[in-house]
Write a structure and sequence with these properties.
about 40% helix; 15 strands; elongated; about 375 residues; alpha+beta; 7-stranded mixed beta sheet; 8-stranded mixed beta sheet
Amino acid sequence: MSKIVVQLDAYVIPDEHLVFKFSPGKTYRFYNTVKDAKTAFLDIRGLDALDDDPKHWDDKALLKLIAEDRWTRQLARAKRGYDTVGSAAVSRIDRRNLTFLKELVFDGKKGDLVVVPVDGYMKDVLIGEFTTDPGDVKRVIAKDGDYQHEYRGRPVRWLSAVEKRLFSGEMLKKLHNPNAIFVIGKSQRNEIYRHAYGNFVYDGECISEFHTSKHKFTSEDSAVASMWFNGFDVLRHSMATNQQSSMSDDFYGMGLEKLPDRDAAELRININSPGAFGMQSKDTFAFALMAFFALSGCEAKDVINQGVTVQLKTVGKAPKNCQLDIENTVNGMATALGDKRLQQACDLGVRAEKDAQMNTSATLKSGAKKRK
């Protein structure tokens, strides 16, 4: 008897994963080129004269090139009637720009994210991932005023575009930071990961999202969804504390059981018709919920007897053991519920899907058919 296969549109992110804020030039003037060329590049001219392989670049030669580029622009300003700033000698600004260039070219690993801000709050911030290994760059032609120049940058695959107004105040401070490129701190990356991946596990925490497309989300819809979430959370806590014998003998009763805040998984609710539920847990529970929602239309006895295998995605060189952990959680919870309570949970999930128009990024791939 083949196992039931559930595919999760969820990502395992390695601990060493980085998120870079990258500025598309002063006044964001290269935003459209960065977007269309799918390449993150710094406004440093003359790199086309260097070796195609950045590993052969010499810091001394780079500094000289960067200083010459800066001074050439100053002389061009002087011809337009402006005063020059600084001198032709290598400056502190040149050394800083060399640091930015090396960070872009060499520090970002394949799969690391790059966040590109834009000038207006109603315009889209771009979130993408580096598609090449460090040191693998691409040539790009960009127009600056009346002139075109060739630049070198890192190829990027765009994952999402999010209006800048939707970011938190703390993240906006990062996006408005004038530095050309820097790594966003670990404590703030979850906000970016939510926009890029939706469902993910990072730094020991699983985060999943459930959406409702219903424009009039009623109190009944809220009760059905809340009972489904709380029933499984009570099961999770009971299994973790070896108190399964004290659980209600039906899932509806479990959905109304009291669970202390300190023991409950964190549930974020944003019901603006349409809206979303966000589940966050320090174990695989948040991902297990996605799988159970996909299993809602199945016969409980099939889920228990056949067992469930889970498919999910990885970012970069993320470990593969998370998949097995999720499978163990799903199968262990199904067995602990038994036919009766699991069938009730499935029925409640179907009701949430049909009446409350709830959904999540999980698909029943094979091994079982949904009831009609």
